[in-house]
Q: What sequence folds into this?
């Protein structure tokens, strides 16, 4: 005999497949859902189904979209000639919060990772090349994460994918975080901050 | 304009209401569900609905149950005269794993917590008194957690609820965990272990 009723076991199992949810968390969430009103639990189930039915990836930039194209691609106020390449749609949210970037995006839906067998063919890199070839793009900013996988992916795109095109290719600046402390910066970041030093304005 | 499509925002909001899920985790889970196959996401939604439809609390002991009574209450092999009082159904799973207890359970569905306004009237304590009055129970083991709230609840039940009845009332032993180390035990636990010392066998 299992410890719980079968439907509870099934739910704990399904919750345990979610990223960052271990067996103990899955159990806690399942019992929470068992205790709350049926309408509240149902609202979560409905939200999952509604999202899967109504949200897809933008056909042009692979951001999340409710129709064929995302809200940014269909915004006439955005500069269509500057392209920001990011790993995931959530990176767009982070960049949009800055209010600094007025161009459009291209989401790779992942990052190159040889250890996990993720190569350029698993990402939207071919689609990026097709876009740069077909659209009137003057600058591509590579905004992958400043870690090993992100740097490798950015280097691959710059040297192998965008080299044949006449576009300006740039990378996000590395350096000290605003409000940070020299003493606690790691040597790589501090080294990058030194290399990237600029005139005092 | 919000950063994501509306159904994604709704799902992130709903996920954020779950215990132990912060805004970042909710976002990560939502994007995970966006990426996986629709059947996989649907399976999670269905598991939530199925559990809410098929699982309730046992009418007798408030454990999770698929029918009116739970699997333990309906098991003829269990000793119906020994009652183990626990806070939550998940505590039953922990006790069952030991294989030591052959009696039945009573779940309080919570613990007394004056700071959060949870008093005896919010728990299944009245139901416990009715059970002890109506059923042929000889011993009640108070298995609430060995923390402030659990001890308070156990003390309340022992002194105010079970005192009028002729039942043996016991509490789980406190002491050093098996495989533990004297040096690292906190003074309260070590004090309890000393108080609870028993003859060398």
A:
């Amino acid at each position: 005999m299992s410890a719980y009723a079968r439907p509870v076991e099934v739910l704990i199992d399904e919750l345990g497949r979610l990223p960052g949810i271990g067996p103990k968390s899955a159990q806690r969430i399942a019992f929470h859902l068992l205790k709350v009103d049926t309408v509240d639990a149902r609202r979560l189930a409905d939200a999952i189904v509604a999202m899967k039915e109504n949200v897809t990836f933008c056909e042009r930039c692979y951001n999340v979209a409710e129709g064929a194209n995302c809200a940014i691609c269909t915004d006439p106020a955005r500069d269509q000639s500057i392209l920001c390449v990011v790993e995931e749609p959530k990176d767009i949210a982070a960049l949009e919060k800055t209010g600094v970037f007025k161009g459009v995006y291209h989401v790779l839906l992942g990052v190159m990772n040889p250890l996990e067998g993720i190569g350029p063919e698993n990402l939207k890199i071919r689609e990026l090349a097709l876009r740069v070839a077909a659209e009137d793009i003057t600058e591509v900013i590579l905004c992958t994460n400043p870690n090993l996988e992100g740097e490798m992916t950015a280097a691959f795109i710059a040297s192998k994918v965008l080299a044949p095109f006449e576009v300006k290719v740039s990378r996000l600046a590395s350096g000290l975080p605003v409000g940070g402390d020299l003493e606690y910066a790691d040597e790589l970041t501090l080294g990058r901050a030194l290399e990237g030093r600029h005139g005092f304005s």
Summary: The first strand of chain B starts at residue 56 and ends at 57. Strands of chain B lie at 56-57, 64-65, 82-86, 104-107, 139-142, 168-171.
